[in-house]
Design brief:
The protein is α+β, with helices and mostly antiparallel strands and about 160 residues long. It has helices at about 1-10, 65-70, 75-85, 110-120, and strands at about 20-25, 30-35, 45-50, 90-100, 120-125, 130, 145-155. Strand 2 (about 30-35) and strand 3 form a beta hairpin.
């Protein structure tokens, strides 16, 4: 996250934008939001990595937990979305998932599962997606970044 913020700050369009990491949730100093933008605060973002292989190329059998676990202790993208939907922050909120593609483990099914589960619990905005291409890592060479705005209310059914 720090490297991404450094890159953003070097872009002219973002050079004057206040941004940082680890913003405490109002009323709960133990929990921190991954990214924030603006002064006054305009956006808070919870980010998760979807990496179905380790740096050594071996499958990571627990990686879906980071996206889909319904248990708050696992701090998944799903529980982050629910946490963001509560009215703690008086600004716009988003969940961001960045991940890597593999021939035998594409991102799309996991992203679809996240959207399906999250939309049962919170109101998600339309997805925004950008590719990650020509990366220098020998295992994590391509992927994508996905983002959704999260409304300030938990879905009740």
């Amino acid at each position: 996250m720090a490297l991404m913020l450094t890159e953003l700050r070097s872009e002219p369009a973002f050079s004057g934008v206040a941004m940082g990491q680890s913003l405490p949730y109002p009323g709960d100093g133990r929990q921190k939001c991954d990214l924030f933008f603006g002064d006054p605060l305009e956006w808070v973002v919870e980010a998760k990595m979807a990496r179905f292989r380790g740096d050594n190329g071996k499958p990571d059998d627990t990686s879906l937990k980071d996206l889909l676990s319904p248990y708050p202790a696992d701090r998944s993208a799903l529980t982050d979305a629910v946490k963001l939907a509560r009215p703690a922050f008086g600004c716009r909120k988003a969940v961001l998932i960045y991940g890597f593609e593999y021939v035998d483990r594409p991102l799309e099914p996991a992203i679809h599962a996240f959207e399906r589960l999250a939309s049962e619990l919170v109101e998600l905005g339309a997805p925004v997606q950008a590719p990650l291409e020509d990366l220098v890592h020998p295992v994590h060479a391509t992927g994508a970044v996905f983002g959704w705005e999260v409304a300030s209310r938990v879905v009740t059914r």
